[in-house]
Specification:
173 residues, mainly alpha, elongated
Length: 173
Amino acid sequence: MAADTRDSTSPKQSQTSPGMTEPKGKTYDTFNYPATTENENSLPGANPNTIVGKQTEPRIVDALKTIRLQDFKEVHKKPCTREGFLAGIGAAFATGGVRAILGAPIFTACSWAVGAFAFGSFAMHEYCQGKRRREKEGIQKVNAALLEKKIKEEMKREEIRKARRKAKEESGR
């Protein structure tokens, strides 16, 4: 009978071919390649600023360079921005005015007004964006329903055409 491979007392048979040596260490050690210090995907002579090379970390200065004066001149043309600013102005006026009338120091009333402006603008902008998103989803549903209706009508017309052709062929025979 053959020796049981699970038996630890049986002599270990080598799985390697003649001329090959038994791997040393764990099996996964034979497949681990030494880590290289340079990127294998980079081209020879590539510098850190090339696309395939190492990318530089973005900095705040780089972000500030992308801002133009034209962006501030056209901010009111962005969707929901105008509504957000108007709601923020109203919230700031109301909150700051009420705080000042109730006897809070001017600096405190102004601080509350600035906070109310920021919160009111943000809240109205997000509300407006949500409303636009719901409108867009509604339009997509209507378009899908219209497309489905158009397809059904086309199928109905095609069935009528087939019935007419069949009737014409039968009458012609």
